[in-house]
Design a protein that fits this description.
It is a single chain. The chain has 167 residues and is mainly α. The chain has helices spanning 3-16, 27-53, 70-88, 92-117, 127-166; strands spanning 57-59, 120-122. A two-stranded antiparallel ribbon has the order 1-2. The longest helix has 40 residues, at 127-166. The chain is globular and about 60 Å long.
């Protein structure tokens, strides 16, 4: 198998395998945390564009030609965001510890594998910097999910109250 075919197979596996776990999450959890996972992917995509332009890192994924590695963003990153929120939301310390451990795995051994395969390489950014960016971002997206849930609850209460008044 050629080097390009190995990269292609790895990228496809990285995109597809995480999605095989989503049916075990349940439909309600999936839709509950879909906005925060989508927001996260949008921000990470913009960060990837900026990071590639500033040469903080380079991406050479055959499935995602260009500056954004969608096989990573739409695969493990998206699905991991959904799962972490499903398993820990409502307990911030559990969320932060889980996210910190997952980010540690992501930033060191996982990205190390990518670098060895030639799919990704940190240039002007260090692994530890990316780790602290991810942990900081995890705190922000927890707040994002909190605001979304609070808004949904408020909208539901307002809708129930107005429906009761009309009757």
């Amino acid at each position: 198998m050629s080097n390009r075919n190995k990269k292609m197979a790895f990228s496809l596996a990285m995109l597809i395998i995480p999605w095989l776990t989503v049916p075990f999450m349940g439909k309600n959890s999936f839709f509950r945390f879909l906005p925060v996972a989508s927001f996260t992917n949008l921000v990470i995509s913009v960060f990837a564009l900026v990071g590639n332009r500033k040469r903080w890192f380079i991406t050479k994924n055959p499935l995602s030609p260009g500056n954004v590695d969608f096989s990573y963003i739409l695969g493990p990153f998206f699905v991991a965001t959904l799962w972490i929120f499903k398993l820990t939301y409502g307990n911030f310390s559990k969320y932060l510890i889980t996210n910190s451990v997952m980010d540690l795995i992501n930033c060191f051994p996982y990205f190390g594998i990518w670098e060895k395969m030639g799919l990704f390489k940190f240039k002007k950014m260090k692994h530890i910097t990316w780790y602290f960016i991810c942990v900081s971002f995890a705190i922000i997206i927890y707040g994002f999910q909190y605001i979304i849930e609070k808004s949904i609850i408020q909208a539901f209460r307002t809708g129930v109250e107005s429906k009761t008044i009309k009757e």
